[in-house]
TrEMBL record:
Key word RNA-binding present: no
GO MF entries: proton transmembrane transporter activity
This protein's name: ATP synthase subunit d, mitochondrial
Keywords (A to Z) from UniProt: CF(0), Hydrogen ion transport, Ion transport, Membrane, Mitochondrion, Mitochondrion inner membrane, Transport
Key word Transport present: yes
Length: 168
């Protein structure tokens, strides 16, 4: 009976929906053939699983007892069939996959937050550039106000280029 329950468990897993369109959007062009092979194989397995009956077919032992001439042979087969235990594979990878997924989600969240911070900084810079005086109308004082790093320190460095040589 274990054989049939594992088949049913496999069927439940296979019936989970996969958003193939969203998956396909994330596949790079150089891996498109592998993706198509995976989808074809998945569709074939899914079709095979859906073709299986919901409940296993029951064996009519009394029919076999009436048809088989050797006495006790069907009883022996029935006893052996009921004693048959097919081991189910032990899931050893789900916990590792879940840990990897949690780690990936955490790093993705950190990246998203860092990106939001960078976006805010860039928007401030864009506002500064959009609201400044146009370059063709700008004076040196306007330039030094908008870009303080361009201001020359003529007091500290009285001779041209008014900057330390190392900064040139």
């Amino acid at each position: 009976m274990k054989f049939f329950t594992s088949r049913m468990a496999g069927r439940r897993v296979a019936l989970k929906a996969i958003d193939w369109l969203a998956f396909a959007e994330r596949v790079p062009p150089n891996q498109r053939s592998m993706f198509n092979a995976l989808k074809t194989r998945s569709d074939a397995i899914s079709a095979k699983l859906t073709s299986l009956p919901e409940a296993p077919v029951t064996i009519d032992w009394s029919l076999y007892k009436s048809k088989v001439a050797k006495v006790g042979m069907v009883d022996e087969f029935e006893k052996k069939f009921k004693a048959l235990q097919i081991p189910e594979p032990v899931d050893t990878q789900t916990s590792a996959i879940n840990a990897q997924e949690a780690e990936a989600n955490k790093s993705a969240s950190a990246y998203i937050e860092a990106s939001k911070t960078r976006i805010a900084e860039y928007e401030k810079k864009m506002d500064k550039l959009n609201n400044m005086v146009p370059f063709d109308q700008m004076t040196i004082d306007d330039l030094n106000d908008v870009f303080p790093e361009t201001k020359l320190d003529k007091v500290k460095y009285p001779y041209w280029p008014h900057k330390p040589i190392a900064d040139l």
